[in-house]
Amino acid sequence: MTLIESLLLIAAGYLLVGLAFAVPFLTKWVGKLDSSAQAGSWGFRVLILPGTVLLWPVLAWRLRGSAAREGRPPLEATPHKRALAAKAPGGRA
Protein backbone atom coordinates (compact mmCIF):
# COMPACT_ATOMS: atom_id res chain seq x y z
CA MET A 1 0.00 0.00 0.00
CA THR A 2 1.41 3.34 -1.01
CA LEU A 3 1.42 6.51 1.04
CA ILE A 4 -1.34 8.04 -1.10
CA GLU A 5 -3.55 5.00 -0.65
CA SER A 6 -2.98 5.08 3.10
CA LEU A 7 -3.86 8.77 3.31
CA LEU A 8 -7.01 8.24 1.24
CA LEU A 9 -8.03 5.35 3.48
CA ILE A 10 -7.52 7.49 6.59
CA ALA A 11 -9.51 10.36 5.03
CA ALA A 12 -12.34 8.01 4.06
CA GLY A 13 -12.44 6.61 7.60
CA TYR A 14 -12.53 10.12 9.07
CA LEU A 15 -15.43 11.08 6.82
CA LEU A 16 -17.33 7.87 7.60
CA VAL A 17 -16.97 8.46 11.33
CA GLY A 18 -18.07 12.07 10.75
CA LEU A 19 -21.15 10.92 8.87
CA ALA A 20 -21.98 8.41 11.60
CA PHE A 21 -21.64 11.22 14.18
CA ALA A 22 -23.67 13.71 12.10
CA VAL A 23 -26.86 11.64 12.03
CA PRO A 24 -27.53 11.61 15.80
CA PHE A 25 -26.00 15.07 16.20
CA LEU A 26 -28.39 16.67 13.73
CA THR A 27 -31.42 14.79 15.00
CA LYS A 28 -30.90 15.01 18.80
CA TRP A 29 -27.83 16.87 19.98
CA VAL A 30 -27.67 20.09 17.94
CA GLY A 31 -30.05 21.79 20.38
CA LYS A 32 -27.72 21.06 23.29
CA LEU A 33 -25.02 23.29 21.79
CA ASP A 34 -27.27 26.01 20.41
CA SER A 35 -30.83 26.42 21.62
CA SER A 36 -31.85 28.38 18.51
CA ALA A 37 -30.70 25.48 16.31
CA GLN A 38 -33.10 23.19 18.12
CA ALA A 39 -36.01 24.84 16.30
CA GLY A 40 -34.17 24.74 12.96
CA SER A 41 -35.83 23.14 9.98
CA TRP A 42 -34.55 20.08 8.17
CA GLY A 43 -33.31 22.43 5.44
CA PHE A 44 -31.08 24.11 8.02
CA ARG A 45 -29.82 20.73 9.22
CA VAL A 46 -28.97 19.69 5.64
CA LEU A 47 -27.02 22.94 5.25
CA ILE A 48 -24.90 22.30 8.33
CA LEU A 49 -24.36 18.61 7.49
CA PRO A 50 -21.02 19.12 5.63
CA GLY A 51 -19.60 21.19 8.47
CA THR A 52 -20.77 18.64 11.00
CA VAL A 53 -19.11 15.81 9.08
CA LEU A 54 -15.82 17.72 8.81
CA LEU A 55 -15.79 19.20 12.32
CA TRP A 56 -17.15 16.22 14.25
CA PRO A 57 -14.21 16.05 16.71
CA VAL A 58 -14.78 19.68 17.78
CA LEU A 59 -18.53 19.17 18.13
CA ALA A 60 -18.04 15.94 20.07
CA TRP A 61 -15.63 17.73 22.41
CA ARG A 62 -18.15 20.54 22.96
CA LEU A 63 -20.94 18.03 23.64
CA ARG A 64 -18.72 16.28 26.15
CA GLY A 65 -18.50 19.48 28.22
CA SER A 66 -20.55 19.83 31.35
CA ALA A 67 -22.46 22.89 30.11
CA ALA A 68 -24.02 20.90 27.28
CA ARG A 69 -25.05 18.11 29.65
CA GLU A 70 -26.81 20.64 31.88
CA GLY A 71 -28.91 21.92 28.99
CA ARG A 72 -27.35 25.34 28.72
CA PRO A 73 -25.04 26.56 25.96
CA PRO A 74 -21.32 26.55 26.71
CA LEU A 75 -19.74 29.82 27.78
CA GLU A 76 -17.51 31.43 25.21
CA ALA A 77 -14.27 32.85 26.58
CA THR A 78 -13.06 35.13 23.81
CA PRO A 79 -10.62 37.99 24.53
CA HIS A 80 -13.39 40.48 23.78
CA LYS A 81 -15.76 38.93 26.32
CA ARG A 82 -12.99 38.74 28.93
CA ALA A 83 -12.24 42.43 28.42
CA LEU A 84 -15.92 43.29 28.83
CA ALA A 85 -16.14 41.17 31.97
CA ALA A 86 -13.18 43.00 33.47
CA LYS A 87 -14.94 46.35 32.90
CA ALA A 88 -18.33 45.20 34.22
CA PRO A 89 -19.23 46.20 37.80
CA GLY A 90 -19.78 42.64 39.00
CA GLY A 91 -16.83 41.26 37.07
CA ARG A 92 -19.07 39.39 34.62
CA ALA A 93 -20.36 40.59 31.27
Account of the 3D structure:
The chain is mainly alpha-helical and 93 residues long. It has one domain. α1 packs across α3. The protein is extended. The termini are far apart.
Q: Helices and strands in order, then pairings?
A:
Layout: H1 3-33, H2 35-38, H3 42-54, H4 56-64, H5 66-69, H6 79-87
Summarize the structure.
The protein has 93 residues and is mainly α.
Quick tags:
93 residues
Counted by DSSP, the helix tally is 6
* Largest sheet: number of strands, sense, barrel closure: none
What is the tally of beta strands? 0
Number of individual domains: 1
Q: Rounded to an integer, what's the Rg over CA atoms? A: 18 Å
- Cα separation of the termini: 55 Å
Low-confidence segments, given as residue ranges, are: none
Looking at the structure, what is the overall shape? extended
Mean pLDDT: 85
* Relative helix content: over 70%
Q: Specify the structural class.
A: mainly alpha
Order of helices and strands: HHHHHH
Strand content: under 5%
